[in-house]
Amino acid sequence: MRVSVRSLAIPSAPPPSSSLRSAPLALLPPIPLYRRLLRAHRKYLPKEMRLLGDEYIKSEFRSHRNVENPMHIIGFLTEWQMYAQKIEGNAWKGDKLDRGKIDKMSDQQLGQLYELMQTIQRREDGGEGET
């Protein structure tokens, strides 16, 4: 069999299925994404979770307002956009954090995550006030 350039250009393995890899998303600009997140919380979350989530979103967007590193901005917007899709699709219930993302977190981020976990546990136990 004679090898041609055309046969070399054809991939030998089938393309990955759509369930394993989704098409790249067009990132929303920060303000429309911020509004989308607040709308998703208002529509899909119970009141207590919505209040906690809205407060967290507002503080995160405020603290990242003056970031100039393009890679940091893209990562920030990408993660929040994926979060919005999970909330809108009710895929967040019972979902666990990806171990790879936890490994990449700084000590400060891990501390924030721990504080968030404690706040959620206190609210579930009925203790509204923080210690």
What would your notes on this structure say?
This protein is an all-alpha fold and 131 residues long. It is 61% helix and 0% strand. It is built from six helices and no strands. It has helices spanning 5-9, 30-44, 47-63, 70-88, 99-104, 107-124. Helix 2 runs antiparallel to helix 3 (47-63) and helix 2 runs parallel beside helix 4. It is globular.
Considering the chains and any ligands shown, give keywords for the structure.
131 residues; mainly alpha; 6 helices; 0% strand; globular; disordered N terminus
Task: Describe the SSE topology.
Elements lengths: L4 H5 L20 H15 L2 H17 L6 H19 L10 H6 L2 H18 L7
Helix pairs in contact: 2-3, 2-4
Instruction: State the separation between the terminal residues, measured CA to CA.
Output: 76 Å
Give the SSE string.
Answer: HHHHHH
Helical amount = 55-70%
- The averaged pLDDT comes out at 79
Rounded radius of gyration (Å): 20 Å
Helix/strand class: mainly alpha
What is the count of helical runs? 6
Label the overall shape: globular
Largest sheet: none
Q: How many distinct beta strands?
A: 0
Strand content: under 5%
Low-confidence stretches: 1-14, 17-21
Summarize the structure.
This protein is an all-alpha fold and 131 residues long. It is 61% helix and 0% strand. 5% of the residues are buried.
